[in-house]
Amino acid sequence: MSTYNIFQIAIPEFKHIHDAKLQHDQAVELLKCIFKEIPKLSNQQLETIGLDKASYDAIKHGMFEFIDEIIELYPEIIWRKDKKGRTLFANAIVLRQEKIFNHVFRLGEKQRITLLRHDIFRNNFLHLAAKLSPPSRLDHISGAALQMQRELQWFEELRRILPPKFEEELNENNRTPASLFSHEHKELMKEGEKWMKNNAASCMVVATLISAVMFTSAFTVPGGIDEKTGSPIFLRSNAFLVFVIANSLSLFSSSTSVLVFLGVLTSHYAEKDFLQSLPAKSILGLFTLFFSIVTMMVAFGSAIFITLQERLAWVSIPVIILSTVPIAFFTLLQFPLLIEMLVSTYCCRIFDIPQTKLK
């Protein structure tokens, strides 16, 4: 029995994966054969076979191999324009395909000159970056506020690359790139403001409740107060020290979270705020809220242990374990959003290329 048959029996999906991989390799070889004939065809023939439509669809669906092969075998396609007067560069921007844009940009200084061209609507490349992303690209991003942030990142990174004069150029509708961006993203900006305020208001309520509970428990310590000395009865207990520290940290972090989310609610919500200011505040607010929940559960667990340590010490163990359930729920529901905000705000660059101005 061959190795292929053994894998097919051991792994039922192996044949399906093998067939899919084989079809993919065959499709790539077929494309190479087709692309070798393209340089021999006239412009009229290229329009007849639908080269521009095929290139557009490949960029739209992020088919990097298609673009890579056609550029290698037919480099002149970099300069080719479709019916709207847009090159591969231009369509990569309109369709928000950063990998394809980065690949074309790395081809060399000569090819980058295509960035200085305009389409038939007198849009320069900064105008194209100012247009709203296709819904298929926006749907991959959680929340309207982060979608707005992504749109601003595209616009700002292209602004750093393109000549300053592009910022003042007018298209056929007499709009500069900045005014076109505001016009195109008017609704998304409203949705982003609503999303950010709803999220901040919800988290602020939770942080306020935690702050109130922690403030109250600071004066009603477990075990009570010694009437003679006025000191807590379990003052010398290590568990009591853990309770005091955890209670204090929870109070401070929840209070900080309340103030941060209050700052989010009272922000001006200008376009540039969505780029870093609002996401940074939300990150700080979510992190301090998460920290306050963790320390609140630690304070609760230590209080239970102090109360039951002399008689039902074993009960405190399952109670302390159950106290991790709220932490787990918060981690599952809110932590992915916190991580996504961190990555999109501080760890993610759209263009993996030198930020040098074109002349």
UniProtKB/TrEMBL annotation:
<dbReference type="Pfam" id="PF13962">
    <property type="entry name" value="PGG"/>
</dbReference>
<feature type="transmembrane region" description="Helical">
    <location>
        <begin position="199"/>
        <end position="219"/>
    </location>
</feature>
<feature type="transmembrane region" description="Helical">
    <location>
        <begin position="283"/>
        <end position="306"/>
    </location>
</feature>
<feature type="domain" description="PGG">
    <location>
        <begin position="193"/>
        <end position="306"/>
    </location>
</feature>
<dbReference type="GO" id="GO:0016020">
    <property type="term" value="C:membrane"/>
</dbReference>
<keyword id="KW-0812">Transmembrane</keyword>
<keyword id="KW-1133">Transmembrane helix</keyword>
<dbReference type="InterPro" id="IPR026961">
    <property type="entry name" value="PGG_dom"/>
</dbReference>
<feature type="transmembrane region" description="Helical">
    <location>
        <begin position="312"/>
        <end position="333"/>
    </location>
</feature>
<keyword id="KW-0472">Membrane</keyword>
<feature type="transmembrane region" description="Helical">
    <location>
        <begin position="239"/>
        <end position="262"/>
    </location>
</feature>
<protein>
    <recommendedName>
        <fullName>PGG domain-containing protein</fullName>
    </recommendedName>
</protein>
